[in-house]
Amino acid sequence: MKKAIFSSTMTMLVVGALAYGQPSRSDGTPAPRLQDDERSSVPAHVPMVDVGLPYPAEQPPAPITISTLPYGPRAHATTVESPTAGRAIRRLSDDEVIPSKPQPIPQGSGEGTAGGIMGGCMGCLGGHDHDHEKVIQGDECCEGGCGCGQFAWIDGQWLHWRVKGSQQPPLLNLIAQAPCSCGNVDAVTIDGGGTRNMGWFDGARFTAGMWLCDCWGVETSYMVLASKTIQNSFTSNGGFLLGIPFIDNKGQENNAIIMCPQQQGSFRSESTTRLWGVEANVFHSGCDCKCWGCNWLLGFRYLQLDESLDILNKAHVWAVGCGMPVGTDIALADDFATRNHFFGPQIGTRCDWNICRCISLNAGAKVAIGAVDEYIRIQGTNTCTCTGNNTVTPGGFFAQPTNIGSYHHTDFCVVPECRVGLDWAITCRIHANIGYSFLYMSEVVRPGDQIDRHVNISQLAGGALVGAANPHFDRQTTDFFAHGLDVGLEFRF
């Protein structure tokens, strides 16, 4: 009897000891025990859960280095020893969940790229929560790997640019004293005779793009500077003389008096400029590592520059002594218009560098090489209303039958453009940006350059040509540039 009781007692002790040393899963089944050689391979960052089991007094705890498990919904249950005296630490079971910690997005993937392609906080955006926006982790900036992801973006920018001023010949002189006729007299140029500054232009640029695969994407962009007109105007009530400066058949500077003391009138010149263009590009992620990355692009570009210069002189004869009947109205109109169509392939690159947690610096350059179609139109009319009769004849003053017409020419042109800017990740899907752009065209035609100041006044008012066929058409070309600031928002999907 005593032997049976002793045997049963020993059996229970052995079973209890084995049960104590063998951890179990949440369903009651025994979990595998770590062997000595397996404990050394446990990651040093595995989080453990204190279950509060006391150690036997005769079995002191052995210290062990522990690291965290990968964050996620699943973890394997295993009990290991803890340096905390009298307590045991176990891993979570399969059906238990460790709260997810935001993980860095690899650089160049998803919302981790700037300017729609490579910007924002590359590699420092938080994990995704289906109910909340992604959160930028300040201590994780510049983390993440290389590569690019699949996403799309839409960017809208307000442009505040200036353009190169256009050259204009002298258009109007204020004359000290002279008879009511042409004469080489002292005069001061009050309109034209230099560069006409068009001031600041407002405009917009819209860009949309998407990744097609891991490292290839497409992008299209449209930009426009709103049409702007600068006007200079002068009026006279007969108290002073106004004249149009020109070069006569003798090659000398002269003035055509358009308003004398017996006339009242006005002068007006208007310059208009409008620039717009579109482009489509295919780009490839060339290099994308940690805090910086670059893309290469290949595409096609179209630009159109429209400009005009309109000159209108009006005079009304109110007194005798000007050689024309009292009540005569005269209007001389000159119209010079140009249009430049550029089209050609382009190549370029764009690079981004993370400055801090959510601000990145980006820079890009591209160059298009192609053809520019140049269109020039010259028109002029002379309208005379005398004794109730209205007569319109071709030719104003600088636009005469000898140069009136439409002209077309195609030439070679190079169009480089560069931009530097800053991108601020407000959220993972909304980025604000500000930058400076410079656009250049190597060859264009502009209206003021097409004016020939050599004028044979025998053609005025429909008269027959006597002498040299002036003015004549001689295409003149120059370059063009536009530059300024841009501010915008970008939405990513």
What pattern of helices and strands is seen along the backbone?
HHEEEEEEEEEEEEEEEEEE
* Amino- and carboxy-terminal Cα gap: 81 Å
For the record, the count of structural domains works out to: 2
Q: Which class of the largest domain in CATH terms?
A: Mainly Beta
What oligomerization state is this entry in?
Answer: single chain
Please name the fourth-level CATH homologous superfamily of the largest domain. Answer: OMPT-like
Which fold name fills CATH's third level, the topology of the largest domain? Lipocalin
Brief descriptors of the model:
single chain, 493 residues, 2 domains, 18 strands, 51% strand, disordered N terminus
Question: What's the short version?
Answer:
By secondary structure, the chain is mostly beta strands.
Word description of this protein:
The chain is mainly beta and 493 residues long. It folds into two domains: 100 residues, no CATH class; 341 residues, Beta Barrel (Lipocalin), CATH 2.40.128.90. It is built from two helices and 18 strands. The strands form three sheets. The chain has a ten-stranded antiparallel β-barrel with strand order 4-7-8-11-12-13-14-16-17-18. The protein has a four-stranded antiparallel beta sheet with strand order 6-5-9-10, with no helix packed on it. The longest helix is centred in the N-terminal third of the chain and has 20 residues.
